[in-house]
Amino acid sequence: MAAPHTANDRHRVVVIGSGFGGLFGTKALRRSDVGVTMLAKTTHHLFQPLLYQVATGILSEGEIAPPTREVLSAQQNAQVLLGEVTAIDLEKRVVTSHVLSRETETPYDSLIVAAGAGQSYFGNDEFAEFAPGMKSIDDALELRGRIFGAFEMAELGANRGENVDHLLTFVVVGAGPTGVEMAGQIAELAHRTLKRDFRAINTRTARVVLLDAAPQVLPPFGAKLGAKTKHELEKLGVEVLLGAMVTDVDERGIVVKYKDGRVERIDTVTKIWAAGVQASPLSRTLAEQTGAPLDRAGRIGVNPDLTLPGHPEVFVVGDMIALDNLPGVAQVAIQGAKYAAKEIDGRIKGRPPQKPFKYFDKGSMATISRFRAVAMVGRFRLTGVIAWLMWLAVHLFYITGFKNRVTAVLHWFISFLGRGRSERTATEQQIFARNALALLRHGASDLVSSPGVYDAAEAVLETSRRAELEARALEEARLTDEGKRGVPVDEDSASDADAGQRV
Ligand SMILES: Cc1cc2nc3c(=O)[nH]c(=O)nc-3n(C[C@H](O)[C@H](O)[C@H](O)COP(=O)(O)OP(=O)(O)OC[C@H]3O[C@@H](n4cnc5c(N)ncnc54)[C@H](O)[C@@H]3O)c2cc1C
Question: Which CATH class is domain 11-120+278-348?
Answer without folding.
Answer: alpha beta
